[in-house]
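Running log. JK asked me to keep both predictions on one page so they can be read side by side. First protein, sequence followed by its C-alpha cells:
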Amino acid sequence: MKLGYRMLARLSPLLFLVTGVWCVAFYSVIIEEIRDETDDYLEERARRAIVLLGAGHDPFPDVRNDGYSAREVTEEYARSRPRVLFLDEMVYVAGELEEEPARALKTIFRDDAGRYHEIVVRTPTIDREELQGSILSSMIFLYLSLLVASLLVHFMVFRREMQPLHALLKWLRSYTIGQRSDLPATGARAAEFRELYRAVDASTRRNEEIFEQQKQFISNAAHELQTPLAICKNQLELLAEQATAGGEGIVNLQVTIERLVRLNRSLLFLSRIENGQFTGSEEVSFNALVGEIAPDFGEAYAYREIAFSVIEEGTFRVTMDEMLARSLVMNLLKNAYLHNREGGRARVEIRRGGLLFANTGDPAPLDGKRVFERFYRSGSAGEHSTGLGLAIARSICRCHGLDLRYDFEDGEHRFRVSRASPPFHPDL
C-alpha cells in the first residue's frame, strides 16, 4: 500500500473518533445552554409574579392559562415541598388542540399576611426529540463533510510535500551503477528530505568510486594475467614437443595452464558483462541460435552418448546483444552436457515465453540458493568446468530483463529462461 493511502487509513479512525466526541459534546452543550436560558427566564417571571401578587395585581393578564397559575396552599404543604422546583412537562394548548412540551418552575412564597402561595410559571420549549433529530441529521452531514474535507486536505498537503521523495524514488529506479546521473533538484522545504537527498548523493558517489576501482582492478588483473599465461602456454607446448622424458608432467602443467587461461577469460568476460561493455542491441531469435549451436555440442560430446532433442513450440525473440545471447545458449547447453551422465538425456524446449534446458545427471537436486554463485561446482563437475558458466548466464539474463531459474523435477535438472516481470534492477 502506498504511503499516502496508508496515512489516510491511519488518520480516518482517529478523525472519526475525535469528531464523534466533539459532536456529542457539542450537542450536550447546546441542550444545556438552552435549558439554562429557559430556567433563567422562568426565575425572572416567578420573581415578577411574586411582586405583583404581593401588591394584589394579576401578574400576567395577557398570558394564556397554561403559562401561569397561582394557588394558596397550607403551611404543611409549603414546608413539605422544595422552595424552587424545575419540571419538564406536557401542557395541553387549547388553541393548538394538542399537547406541547413546556418547562415549568414551581415556587412557594409567603405574603405579608402570613399566607402561603404556590406559583407555577411555564414557557413552551423546543421538542427535544425533534431538536435531537434535527441536530443529529445536521451534525451527521457536517461531520461527514468535515471528515471528508479533512482527509482530502491532509492527502493533498501530504502528496505535495512528498513530491521530492517521489522524484528521488523515480531517479533511483532508473539509476544504474556505472552510469552516473545527477540527482533531481530537491525543491524540498523539509529538513529530513534535504538530509535524505544528501545521504543518497553521498552513497551513490561512494558506490561509483568503489565500482570504478573494482572495474579497473578486474580489468587490469585480467589483462596482466593474460600475457604471462599465454607465454607459459607457448613455452610448455614447445617443451612438450621437444621432450622425450617427463613429457607427462609437462602435459599436466599444460592442462592446468589451459584451465587458468579459460578461467581468466571467463572472469574477464563476466566483468565486461557486469560493467555494461556490451552495448549491441538487435532482435535475436533463440530458435535460430539453438539450431546453430546445438549440433556442434552434439559432435563434441558424442562419446558420452547423450540423447539430445530440441522441442519448438513457439518462437522466442529478445532484443539484446547477439554475442551475449550466443554465450547464454552455449553456457546452458554446455552445462546440460558437462553435468550429465553417460547415456543420459538432454533437451531444449523453446516456447514463446522462454527456454527450458533440461538434463539428467546427479540424482539429487542442486543447492538452489548457490547454483548461480561463482565457482559453485556440483559433484558431477569435471576438470573442464570453471564454475563460472551459470554465473555468466545469470549475469546476462539480469542485464537484459530476463529471469533464469533452477528446478529439479522428474529426475531432471531444469534451467528456465523467461522474461522477468517486472524487469529486474540489480542495482536497486
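And the second, directly underneath as requested:
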Amino acid sequence: MCLMKAAILGKKVGMTRVFDEDGASIPVTVIEAGPCPILQVKTAKCDGYDAIQLGFLRAKPSRCRRPDIGHARKAGSEPHRFVREIRQSEPVEQEAGHVVTVALFDVQDVRFVDVIGTTIGKGFQGVMKRHGFGGQLASHGVERKHRSAGSIGGSGDLGEGRGVKRGKRMPGHMGDVQRTARNQRLVSIDKDRNLMLIKGAIPGPKGGFVIVSKAKTKS
C-alpha cells in the first residue's frame, strides 16, 4: 500500500501574473482544484488495474441519473459534474469517501505538473486559420479565391498515384480536442481557497474542466 499519486480535478479560472522574489513577472493560470472526494477505489484483484475515481463540483440530484446518485451514495458522497479515473501504479491507502485537496501536492513536494484539458472549439475553419496557409494572390484582376487552398490533387484513381492523398491538409473542424500541457511549473498553492497557480497557458476556456497530476517526465 502506498500514498496515492498526486492528482486532482479542477476547472480553469483564468490567467494573471505574480512576482517572484527578484521582482520578475510570471504569467500563471489560476485553477480551482478540489476538494475532490474519492467515489471508488479500483484494485488489480477485482478490476484488473489500480485506480481511484474522483469527483469534482457537486451536481443537483434532480439533474443526475439514478445510477450516478447510487454510485456516489456508496462512498457517502453526492453526485458530481466532473468524474474521472486516475490510474495508480500500485494499491493506495486511501478509501472511498476520502477527500483529496491541493494540500496533497504540498505533502509530496510537487514542483512540476501535467495538465489535461479540452481546447477551445473553433468550429469549421479554412486552411489559413487551421493550418497557417499563406493564401493565394490578392492583387487586382485575380479571381476572388484569396483564402482558397488551391489545388488538392489531380483527377484519377488513387491506385494510380493520382487524386487526393490521405492526410491532405484541408478545411475542417478545428479545436475541441483533448490536449496535455506537460511539465508546467507549479508556482504556488492556496490551501484555504483551493487554488493552484501554474506557470504558462493551460488548454481550454475559462470554466473548462482540467485534470492536474504530478509530471511524469520531470521531477
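Observation for JK regarding the second prediction: The chain has two domains: 7-121+180-214, 123-174.
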